[in-house]
Amino acid sequence: MSDSEEQQETKQIHVSPIAKPLANPKLTSKLLKLIKKSATKERRELKRGVRIISKILRKAKQAKTTNPNRLLVIAGDVSPIDIITHIPVLCEENNVPYVYVPSKDDLATGSETKGSTCCVLLDLNNDSPQLKLLKQCQEKVQKMSS
What we know:
The protein is 47% helix and 12% strand. By secondary structure, it is an alpha+beta fold. A 4-stranded mixed β-sheet has the order 1-4-2-3, with helices on both faces.
């Protein structure tokens, strides 16, 4: 077993049982790449943190507007899990696709934050250079969810 396989296996051990749909390693790396590209300060296409994302999703529900270029990535190893249990419900009410990744530390690294991050919302504009990659990830998430 190589080092990367061992690291993946250890991350899978700490994942919560409610973390479904959980991204496979290939999709996880693609998502983290997309997050890293969207984390620039000029574009502001990335929202981090449970409080901020909850606020965005609640406001979208009240305004009854949805951006089709959204994808929520949630860490599967959050403890206590009660911190994020309401997020998937908000996503389903607003038709925002969501997926879990094994590690909150990987999410923090991709989104360029110093501490760990529980969830990240990709909220891309129609002219974003990462739009094609986002659409590919959304399709894979939709296939996993159904």
